[in-house]
Amino acid sequence: MNRILAMVLNNLAVVPGAWFKLCYHAKHTDTVPEIERWRHIQFILKKAIKGGNVDLTLTGLENIPTDEPFMMYANHQGMFDVLAIAATCDVPLGAVLKKELYNVPFLHQIALCTKSYAMDREDVRQSLTVIQNVTEEVKGGRNYLIFPEGTRSKTGNDMLEFHGGSFRCATKSKCTVLPVALVDSFKVLDQKGSKPVSMQLHYLKPIPYEEYKELKPAELAALVKERIAEKIRESIEE
């Protein structure tokens, strides 16, 4: 029995109602309050984490800004990354997802509920439009998650290059940047079967605009990557 099946079967009593409500929220984002949509998503994901035998070590919740908009930047190890973040971050988020992830069932409903964006990295004009839209929404008070590698790393906890263009949302909106380190997240869905699996999620110290305002997007990308890499190294060595 694979892990996704375990997540469903171990929550069979709540799955039909939770799915119906999620689909309803996805179609009525203009009438269902954002916080209500977000809490329902968290309810589903917390059930999934428990039902899937995922031991999630979590640190740094106190680092999540609650009184100002922010951009969250995380390393990317697999489809479970966005689910782990949504389950644990009590502040509502939108996300910028590659188009392939955006169209995955269930992830698609969550993306609609959170008014997230699909980015086609092969279409420069479309990518620039997404960056511009996210920038304006952050200026307006929304929070967003971006995976600056653009695609998942296929080498576990080793990261790919962080694309500087992903950080233009932050530099243009002058918002706080919140780095997030994911450790062993790839194991959740890559590991065969449904035996207990452990992963870590660390919300790192936020970087206020005043701290990075002199940096170019590529320089900010390098700074965030190094802080995430340092936390990953520290976590693996423990």
Structural features, described:
- The protein is of the alpha/beta class and 238 residues long.
- The protein has one domain: 3-Layer(aba) Sandwich (Glycerol-3-phosphate (1)-acyltransferase).
- 46% of the residues lie in helices and 16% in strands.
- A 7-stranded mixed β-sheet has the order 1-7-6-2-5-3-4, sandwiched between helices.
- The longest helix is centred in the C-terminal third of the chain and has 21 residues, at 217-237.
- The chain starts with a helix and ends with a helix.
- The model has no long low-confidence stretch (mean pLDDT 95).
- Second rung of CATH, namely the architecture: 3-Layer(aba) Sandwich
State which percent range the strand residues make up: 15-25%
Spatial order of strands in the largest sheet: 1-7-6-2-5-3-4
Average pLDDT rating = 95
What is the fold-level CATH name, i.e. the topology? Answer: Glycerol-3-phosphate (1)-acyltransferase
Given the C-alpha coordinates, what overall shape results? globular
Cα separation of the termini: 31 Å
Reading the helices and strands in chain order gives HHHEEHEHHEHEHEHEHH
Radius of gyration: 17 Å
Please summarize the sheet with the most strands. 7 strands, mixed
What count of structural domains?
Answer: 1
- The CATH superfamily bears the name Glycerol-3-phosphate (1)-acyltransferase
